[in-house]
Amino acid sequence: MKKILFSLVLLLSALFTSQFVAAAADLEINTPAISAIKNSMQARHGQLAAYYASGAIGLTNDGLIAVRDANAVPLKDRGGLNSAVAAENADRNKLYKEIATANGHPEWQAEIQSTFAGRWIDKAQAGWWVQGAGGWVKK
Amino acid sequence: MKNWMIGVTLACVLPACVTINIYFPAAAAEKAADKIIDDVWQLKNGGDKPNVNAVEPASTPAK
Amino acid sequence: MRVLFHIVISAFCVSLYSISAYAVSEIAIKVQHFEHPQGNAQNVALHLNLSKPTLTLSANVVLKQKSEKDWIQLNLGCEIPENAQFGAFNCADSSLKNSRINLPFSLEINQLFSHGVPDVKATLQLKNANFSDEAGLHAAEKLSGNVAIALKQTGQVWEWKTALDWQSGEVFWQPFYLANGGHTLVANGSFEGETFTVNTANLNIKNVGELKADGQIRLTDFKLINLNANLPDLDLSTAYPLLFKPFLEKTAFNNTEIEGKAALSLQIVNTALKSFELHLKNVDLADKNQKFALYKLNADLPWSFDNPKNVSLSYESGELLNLPLGKTKLQAEVNRYSLTSPSILLPILDGALSLSDISAARIGGQWYWHLSAKLEPISMVDFSAQLNLPKMQGKASAEIPLVTYSGGTLTTDGSVVLHVFNGTATVTQLTMQTPLGIAPKLNADIALRNLDLGELTRTFSFGAIEGKLDGDIDDLELQNWKLVQFDAMVQSSPGKYPKKISQRAVENISALGGGGAAAAVQRSFLRFFEQFNYGKMGLSCRLRNDICQMGGIESTPHGYIIVKGSGIPAITVMGYNQTVGWSELLARIKRVTDGNSKAIVK
After folding, report:
1. Fewer CB within 10 Å of terminal CB in chain C, N or C?
2. Looking at chain C, which subunits does it touch, using at least 3 CB pairs closer than 8 Å as the criterion?
3. What confidence score (pLDDT) does residue B5 get?
4. Residue of B21, B40, B49 to mutate for A, most A C-beta atoms under 10 A
5. From B44, which residue of chain A is nearest by alpha-carbon distance?
6. Peptide bond into B50 cis (omega under 30)
7. Considering its fold, how many domains does chain B have in total?
8. Which of B4, B22, B38 shows the shortest C-beta gap to A23?
9. Distance spanning both ends of chain A, measured CA to CA
10. C268-313 confidence digits (pLDDT tens)
11. 3-state secondary structure of C327
């Protein structure tokens, strides 16, 4: 009887340790595809940073960005604003998909996207606009 | 962290312990997100690169 | 129609000043609040001055449409010439204002009625007008221009005529942006009920070209019912950013430099595109990210919903992912949403890609196509030079019975054979995803047979090795043209041939593992030998997550054998580390081949 109890404890602890290892393991984010997308987004950020600050665009609660108030941008740049937002969102969607596939779980894409959504908003600078439950909020 | 611990304990107390659920690694995903966001928004300079072992063949003279 | 006319007048006041026995010189009317199903009005103030030689009327009113949020202030200052016919007046100092709109204008009405029916002739002049909708997607700044309008009622039909002269100012009308004035529009037509008809419209966009159009618009949803449009001479360098780029954001053509001329005509019948014809004349187009380019492109691209059409396209030269494309002429038949062509020949370098039995279809906004391909031998010397690879001898050729493209993925059924290093590299199971996108992906299996190690090591300046190599690289995956995954095993080919390895090569192999081993050779008596015989060599690597699981031709209790010596003196190179960081290994190989020197020992 004692033996059985002992082995059960052993089994449990083994499960715990393996679970712990899995939980602590990092997600793979160093693939060339992810790097390429990251570089593309990094290059675009120079342009987007001014738009975030002026409130022309904001961070949405689904991990993307959107035009919030195009009036904050001179007329001649509004077409560029739209295409920058479209390109950024295409990259972001691709990024979430790539992270999911790079880790062998394409079905994680939606959860990765919602994880990012929270982190983008948390890390947004003061003065940027983010989408809350009730609409746009200035951080 | 606590949530999955309870989850695992429950799963093992119940007889249906055999099922293996690949759960979403929320903590790791947050860490990955932070790393990528820091890079894209250039919030931090540099990060420590994981240390990997390099190949170490050695030549030994045979007779 | 039930007319609901609900007027709330909270204060109504008519003041008659200077009342004398013979004349009223001024009339002022004030209404504080006025409600109507279409909208509301507030603070209405009308002021009519009758004393001057010409009558003057000033009106100030705050208006709001029911659907709008903001009130808007309308100010009119008009003169009514005494001797003029009824309905002719001139409102020179007028404006329309709210937080987002500032439209100073002058309105000259020459006529309102003739023979008792409405027959309006008027000119509206905008002076430095600014407006914007709430989202900022339809806006203008410093807009100045003239609009002449003529409107006449005949029975149920209103006939209209307009001439618009946009003199200066910028306009953003999602997704279009016009930076400057100089554009004109002359048009006429009629409207009746819900249909707005344009009989002729002549739009001249400065520096871009001229558009002639006629058609019908449904006023309830502003949908084009019928349209005949003709743009006979478009300058693409100015037309691309203005007219085409906004629609190409999600395609590979969203970052292109383009020059040349185009002519476009199209017909819409019953709200559906019926036909179009696009001609390109001497067009040069180049992707700014250098993914592709085509020069001296001429094309004749007709399309019709009802009849199959022949399209043709030719270019003098081009580039695709750094590979030069030679002069090409191709023809195909387009049948509604599908395209077929018996054969297309694309010269590439000194060879050509010959495509046959081509069939493509657009279904649900996605392209699907299949064809069979044959690559006529192209020289590896040119090929490697174009792709900035070390100069390789040999020829590449391929025969792929079936190439399919669906949902952004290119799949091949067949093999690409590269005759390189006096042996062959056979690529099978080749698939590609978004080759022109930001993170292209390539998967393949590669079989290497009888590669000449002598030539191989000379090409990559890795110390001379004589012998032959076989290898199998399975489940290969490239992302953004970088290796991320494979199961590879390369080893000496079977058979009898000279097998020699130079001391230099041994040092370089050893240097990959760090400095210690190389130094060991240097210290020992082996340094006196230029080269050694070997029996067999081989290396395997299973690459996953930037980690290479390594093996050799044989396993030993603590490691694996990379080079097995034979004869005297025999040298055996052993590997001990089973897991190796791939990036670090690549960096070391690069150091060895680049400098053709010893690795830096830390």
Report:
1. N
2. A, B
3. 43
4. B40
5. A123
6. no
7. 1
8. B4
9. 61
10. 999 999 999 999 999 999 999 888 999 999 999 999 999 999 999 9
11. coil
Which chain C residues are Cβ-neighbours of A70 within 8 angstroms? 135-137, 139, 172
Which has the closest alpha carbon to B1: B17, B18, B25?
A: B25
List of chain B residues whose C-beta atoms are within 8 Å of the C-beta of residue A11? 12
For chain C, the first-to-last Cα distance in angstroms comes to 92
Contacts of C22 (CB under 8 A, 6+ apart): none
Sign of CA dihedral A89, A93, A94, A96: positive
ipTM: 0.79
From first CA to last CA, the distance across chain B in angstroms is 58
What residue segments make up the domains of chain C, in order of their start?
1-83, 440-595
Distance CA(C432)–CA(C298), nearest Å, equals 29
- C512 and B54 within 8 Å at the Cβ level: the answer is yes
User: Is residue C65 very low, low, confident or very high in pLDDT (cuts 50, 70, 90)?
Assistant: confident
Question: Within a domain: residue B50?
Answer: no
State how far the Cα of C204 lies from the Cα of C227, in Å rounded to an integer: 18
- Give contacts of B61 with chain C, Cβ < 8 Å: 524, 526, 569-572
Domain ranges for chain A, please list them. Answer: 29-138
Q: Please say whether the dihedral angle defined by the alpha carbons of residues B1, B7, B10 and B15, taken in this order, is positive or negative.
A: negative
- Cα separation of C253 and C243, whole Å? 13
Element (H, E) at C290: none
Q: List the single residue in B54, B59, B63 with the smallest CB-CB distance to C520.
A: B59
What is the residue range of B8's domain?
2-40
Q: Mention every residue, 6+ apart, whose C-beta is less than 8 A from residue B60.
A: C572, C574
Domain-located, residue B45: no
Cβ-count burial C517-545 (b if 16+ within 10 Å, e if not): bbebbeeeebeeeebbbbebbbbbbbbee
DSSP secondary structure letter of residue C332: E
Query: Which residue is closest to A89 within chain C, CA to CA?
Result: C250
Alpha carbon distances (Å) from C313 to A22, C12, C299, C346, C504 = 56, 74, 4, 12, 55
DSSP states of B51-62: P-PPP-EEEEE-
Partner residues linked to C227 by β-bridges: C215, C268
Cβ–Cβ below 8 Å for B34 and A15: no
Which tens digit of pLDDT belongs to each residue from B6-32? 444 433 444 444 444 557 888 999 999
Q: Give the neighbours of chain B: at least 3 Cβ pairs within 8 Å.
A: A, C
**Assigned domain for B20 exists:** yes
Between residues B16 and A55, the one the model is more confident about: A55
Report the residue count for chain B: 63
- Comparing alpha-carbon positions, the chain C residue that sits nearest to A66 is C135
Q: What is the pLDDT of residues A59-111, one digit of tens each?
A: 999 999 999 999 999 998 998 898 899 999 999 999 999 999 999 899 999 99
Contacting subunits of A (3+ beta carbon pairs below 8 A): B, C
- What residues of chain A lie within 8 A of the CB of B29, using their CB? 27, 108, 111-112, 115
What are A's interface residues with C at a Cβ cutoff of 8 A?
A: 28, 30-37, 40, 67, 69-73, 75-76, 78-79, 82-83, 86-87, 90-91, 94, 98
Q: Is the pTM of this model over 0.80?
A: no
Q: Judge whether B28 lies within some domain.
A: yes
Q: Would you call B8 an interface residue with chain A, using a CB distance cutoff of 8 Å? A: yes
B1–A95 C-beta distance less than 8 A: no
Best CA proximity match to C224, nearest among C237, C215, C236: C215
User: How many Cα atoms within 13 Å fall on the side-chain side of residue C366?
Assistant: 7
